[in-house]
Amino acid sequence: MICKLFGSDKSKVRTNHTGSSCVLKWETILWQKVKKKYELLDYHLVPEYLQDNEFVLRHYRSDWPIWDSLLSIFSLHNETLNIWTHLIGFLIFLALTIDTMWDVPRLEQLFENLSRAQHMKQEAGDTVLNLTEPVTRWPFFVFMGGSMFCLLSSTFCHLLNCHSSSLTYWLLRLDYAGIGIMIATSFFPPIYYVFLCQPAWRHFYLTSISVIGIATVIISLIPVFQTAKYRAVRGLAFAGMGLSGIIPGAHALINFYQEPYCLQTLVYELGMAFFYLVGVAIYVTRIPERWWPGLFDIAGQSHQIFHVLVVAGAFTHYKGGLIFLEWRDKSGCL
Ligand SMILES: [Zn+2]
Prior knowledge:
Elements: H1 19-37, H2 66-71, H3 80-102, H4 107-124, H5 138-160, H6 165-186, H7 188-194, H8 199-220, H9 231-243, H10 246-256, H11 260-285, H12 302-331
Helix pairs in contact: 3-5, 3-12, 5-6, 5-7, 5-12, 6-8, 7-12, 8-9, 9-11, 10-11, 11-12
Bound molecules: zinc ion.
């Protein structure tokens, strides 16, 4: 009646007349082994590369196969909400991009504008009316593309970082590069549309932010940059990059302080800055889990709040971008 198990090879199971129950027992033990291997672990049991936040105590996935890591999007652990907050953000931006593509002024609308302008010209006598074409959309879509890249790379980083230290090494670089790209591309719509009629300034600011963006991405590829010790440096580097927008912002305000469209967009840009700066502060300080370690392992931890604020900031910037398009579609370079 004794079933002896040799390793994990099923063929080596010795059976007697109760062979079927031996196989059953073998399967039970194997299942328990598998279950134990892929169960969620506590902070002190996971390898060093997963020990990023000592205030999140439980529900870690550790060294899971890639397929199980992918499927874990549908299960509950301490990365579930980090994955979904940015995946939903990506889907929102994908839908907004498609919607904005459809919303480009159509040819009929142009003819309608033309007849209206001719009518107004007759009424205005010699007043010169300048019928403008819809302004180019590429800077707007550069921003949308940068945001989607950031949100999707973050989603994959949080989903697969439990697989191995070597994969995490590359995923974290992709994640930080994505943040740098998102911030740099955020500058494109305001700078392009505000300085539409001042090409020298437009080129200067767009080149500057591109250089700063590329430098930040390169710095983010340096291995030491991803360690938990450098969390504050990362936060400050990205915040500094965003705050460099104060210079073209102040320049724009001096030039266009009487332009209602410009003032409207300023409100949105300040809203975006507020969301991003509060997000970075929460990311760096790791509030609230710092105050109650273990209480926010599944929901409510600082990184999830940071993710939501990033999506909120990007959405606010998108709304401001729509106003820039409306302004330049109507005014051109008048
Ligand atoms: Zn994240």
